[in-house]
Amino acid sequence: MAEFYAKQCAELVPGSVAQTVQIQERLVDSLDACTQSVDIFIQHSDKQLKEAREILLPALKVLSAAQRDYEGCYTRIRTIRRLLAREFPGSVAEIDLAAEEAEAEAEQADMIEFGSFITADVSPEPEPAMIDMEPEEAQPTGLIEF
């Protein structure tokens, strides 16, 4: 019964305590609804993240294995090229190997140059020597100095 009279009072008397309480209750209800929505969103996001992890982790393992296989194959190919270059001087394998080694040396030189550029001593240039000038004689300005 008291609730009924509070609602009637809130409707009839704007700015009353009953109306303020009613507005506060609505705000609390809205805040609760927002909190529930956020909780549902977080749970849904967590579920999606877990599903994505379940898909991506095996794929990452496969990619890592493929990368190791590729590196192993590349190492074997380089070994075969070296053997062919040694056995058949002047062959395409020898030319390819020489070009590859030259490229690797150029990259190494670039890295060294870049590294020395970064670690170079960057000291400021010395300032030019100050020229001693004789002070000028005071010229009368016509102003009275205090």
Write structural notes for this entry:
This protein is mostly helical and 146 residues long. The chain has one domain. The protein has 3 helices and no strands. It is rod-shaped, with a radius of gyration of 41 Å. The N and C termini lie far apart (91 Å). The relative contact order is 0.03.
Keywords:
single chain; 146 residues; mainly alpha; 3 helices
Low-confidence stretches: none
Instruction: Give the helix proportion (percent range).
Output: over 70%
Please state roughly what percent of the residues sit in beta strands, choosing from under 5%, 5-15%, 15-25%, 25-35%, 35-45% or over 45%.
Answer: under 5%
**Inertia-based shape:** rod-shaped
Mean pLDDT, to the nearest integer, reads 76
**Structure summary, number of beta strands:** 0
Radius of gyration: 41 Å
Biggest pleated sheet: none
N-to-C SSE string, H for helix and E for strand: HHH
Tally of helical runs: 3
Structural class by secondary-structure content: mainly alpha
The total number of structural domains is 1
Termini separation (Å)? 91 Å
